[in-house]
Amino acid sequence: MSLPQPGQLPLFTLEKTCTACLNTKSLESFDRQLLGACGRRSTCKTCRALERLRNRDVNRAYQKLWYDAHKDQVKARVRAWHWAHRDKSLRASQEYYRSHKDHLNALNRMYWLNHREQVRTMHQRYYRNNPHLFRLHRLKRRAREAQAEGFWTVADLEAILSRQQGLCAYCACKLQSDMHMDHIIPLARGGSNWPSNLTFSCPYCNRSKNAKTPEEFYAYRARIAL
Known about the structure:
This protein is mainly alpha-helical and 226 residues long.
């Protein structure tokens, strides 16, 4: 085995001297670096943390400039990663929320109190531009409140609508943008929230059906037609 050259450390050493604080510490006190001596950085983790703290404002300003210059690429990369690892991302978000629920709720509440009008205006604008998303959110909330089993995705809804060929499930009229999603067996009657229990109908049929089963609804329509 060749001896180490001057200024180099032997590969089997378990300690290293930090070039900033000049203290000798274990290798675990240094971040990994492929080209560093022993595969570690020259400054220890503590000194690096202090350096970042001293230059926090400069680093943040630099990061903001870099993000503003590469915003579209960053968003595209994050979006691509999210969809490629959607289940993992959702599980991580849910776990983080469960572990920090009280803290996050307090932050959200404080932000809302300090930016009430701004948040209200933003919500109103988003609602005007995406009314269908709010309808879907209300439907999911109703299913949770009813403690119905099952869940669905937007892809499931698109498949159902395609299978119906854009027609109301009850009167076969052409569905418009104000169409309703209906639980075939109503949630109030023990119906599930699985895609197999979902259908699309026109507003008139859905409101008339209310909490009736399909058989009860067709019998009701036959009676009022007499």
